[in-house]
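Terminal quinol oxidase subunit, Halorubrum distributum JCM 9100. Tokens?
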Amino acid sequence: MSEKDSDSTEKTALFGRLLFGAGLVVLAIRNLTNLDGRVAYADSKGVPEAETLVPAGSGLLLGGGLGISVWKAPKLSAGAVAAFLIGVTPLMHDFWAVDEEDRGGELTSFLQNVTLLGAAVAFFGRAREESTTPE
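Tokens:
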């Protein structure tokens, strides 16, 4: 690969990381600024210890989003995002267990989270490759 191609690839990767990370940061901030509402929603879904888990999960999302954006501790950051999504998605977006009126919205949220999980896994894989590739 030429130096020009490599620069272009790096710029594209940076742009992708910034978009993904910034989106996660905004989601986390929205959770944290409406903590009472998010805790109440988690309680309504039967999440145990929601008053502890909601802020902790939002912290995972915030730290992971920031870490991916600036590519610091990228394996840990992507792992934090993945852990958040794996824990939250089936509990909060259980489309299979809600009435017909709510099913479409929950299915959309479930699929969006699965999509974000795919990106987090891809970033984890890239970070893992970088950490094992000699320079």
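The chain is about 85% helix and 0% strand.
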